[in-house]
Automatic annotation (TrEMBL):
InterPro entries in the record: AB_hydrolase_fold
Start and end residues of each stretch annotated as Disordered: 1-43
Record lineage: Bacteria, Bacillati, Actinomycetota, Actinomycetes, Kitasatosporales
Keyword Transmembrane listed: yes
Keyword Cytoplasm carried by entry: no
Protein name: Integral membrane protein
UniProt keyword list: Membrane, Transmembrane, Transmembrane helix
Amino acid sequence: MASTEQPDAKEQTGGPLGRTAGADRPDAAVTRAPAAEPVDVEAETDPCADARLALELLVHGVGGATAQGMLTDPRTDRVAGDDIAGIHRRVEDRDAEDRPHDYREQPVREAYVWSNLTSGNGTRALWLLLLPFMVVNLAHWMRPTARDRGRTVRVYGVLVRLIALSLTVLLTAAVCEVALDLTAWQCAGTRACSAQKSWLGFMSAGRGGWWSGPGRRLALAAVIPTALIATLWLLSHRTWSAYESQQPTGRTVVEGDRRATGRPALCLPGFWYGRRIVARLRAAHTAAGFLTIAAVLCQASGRYDRRPGGSTTLDTAGWALDAALAAAAGCVVLVVCRRGRSENRADDTLDRFTTRLLPGTALALLLLAALHTAWSRPGWTSDGMLPGNRTFGLIALTQGALVVLLSLAALRLHRAAPVERTPLRGLAGPAVAMLACALGGVMAGGAAQRIADWLDGDATPGMGEGPMPGPPVVLSWQASVIPVLLAALLVLLLYFAAQTLVVRRRLLRTVPDGYPGERPDNARTRTIASVIARAGLTDSAPWVLGAVSALTLLLGGCAVAGAWLTSDVPGQAAEGSPGVVEDGAQAVQALGSWFVGVGFVLLLTWGRRAYRDPAARRTIGILWDVGTFWPRAAHPFAPPCYAERAVPDLTWRMQSWTERTGGRLVISGHSQGSVLAAAAVWQLDPETRRCVALLTYGSPIERLYGRWFPAYFGPAQLTALHGEIHCWRNLWRLTDPIGGPIRLPEGTGTEVDCGPLKDPLAYGRTVDHPLPAPILGHSDYQTDPAFTQERTMLLARLAMWMPTQPQGSSGRSSG
């Protein structure tokens, strides 16, 4: 395990705790490694060697960063952008281009503030309900590196999009279960239940009103899931217009076909502009939602029409509707499978025939199904559950089969071109897709269980104690999986906690060696060792994800099989077994249902709190900062991709400023901001890239993105970026749980990594640090002396790469 290995003494430099920049084991050094290549050119240590103006463009990481905090000045001014994302400077630096000689000692500093893209508005707390969609979208980008496996890559993309489509069907079916089955069919059709709910009085079967007929109640209740799908369609459309409609610069140079040149995908001009695929998927998923509602209505009326004595005319119309729904569903699947993303160019075209006709046809079929169901049927009463109580089981089986197929495709890709440090042998994408399905199932089951519990009053839903049969049996079986999963997760956490203690014990012997000449302090040593050991737990995340996903797939299949093999009567899922087994099974089911319901309530509570509390909203914003970096390629109802706004912003700023001034620019990114900075540099044309240097610190580019997204941030892609930008340095610490080294292969030229930096800067009290120095971990990299040193060296190197500027000239055209 990466978090428990101890470095060999031969690999260490600078004492027992020092080590080379390529290693990042948690029980290694806390001292800063020297620069990889000696700097003996005077210009590389003197920022005044070049008279051109220099600019440092700061890009913050996750969380609610402010321009005042980034620039360490309360008086700032926005020079470009808007309230959502903008470029800020100190007030006294606003006209820096007019007086470049005042900035010969240090660069002009700008801050790009993008935190409002994810955590600015309180309504974004509702994005928590879209969490499964966001997770399955990540699975698309986690595919292994492909080498001469174009067909398998297409199959991988199709399978992820089909899993995403199943999540939309699952969400719609869950809302139909709550609105149509539990509320309109079961509760409104039972006098004991509807009598306790005054708002259901007009629909109550006991009152005999116009809306009391089962078909009319169902048709009216179908408005709720229909409104939800329409809201998701509108939200997807509006967020794309606000976030992802930013045009690329059009200056990105891609010579020939990508496969022929081997250029990274993030260099392509259409990578951050996926209008066509989002529009197609939005139309397909909207149609799928409408068709799911129509199918539920047709199943309800069809059961009555097809029994002996039913209406032949209505039965014939029902069969015609079923055939039309099946044909429309086939068209939806075809649209989802037919075309994926197009990245070689910014695709502005829209398939208007598909984007308009498909959801329109589905909505028309839904209206026909509602009219057919609401048609008067004397003698029709609602008893039991709605037909189709195995729908959730079919969805679960379909999702499991798709995940298995996705795993086979991922294994084939990984074996064709294995990449070192890829988690789970290339199965990270399928594991994340399985996690998305599990989250969707928990949310669906939680909503059904809590609503049934509320409608049933004091009785336990599904146990035959109250007036309502309750939700489908399969949801109770799936809920019984939750305690087993939680127990397995607890065992894993205990194991890794024990491993952390082992690493901490090893570090206790080596931490003081990084601070020679200072008196040992056991308490201080334990604190530093604990922080380093906990930071190494990040590298154990693949084992947790893999174990939980595999167990979820196995137990989920057993739950579906148990629901189908036992009685379909609620409350009898565990009957027929010995007393102890039966009691244990019912206890696990009850506990699981409680966990599912509580989890759903906590999700809603957290969303409501985030709507009111800015601090909680920033916490949720951090989740979206990590999860919504990638464009919507699999699910159109996922939260919007903020990078499709941020990357063009940064690219346009770097290109326009260097063209206008002919100066040098260092784009300085912390944490997630370093990923945005690298993505923006990838989009620059070669002429602009010669004027730009990249400084990253606390960066997850390799530690997280390089491992989990090897097709886009793998060793080959990072090596290509280093070869094109020339000037790149990366700062990192062992105490940082997120950032790490870049780990470029040997022989790639100038070393990128600078570290590990010493943290804390002082072990005890010194003249320079009269108070105990804090352990900074992932924060405050700019306070380290190495930051200023590396920035100065990058600016000096840029002066060597850039052409000589004639005396008195200020623009690139004269440079």
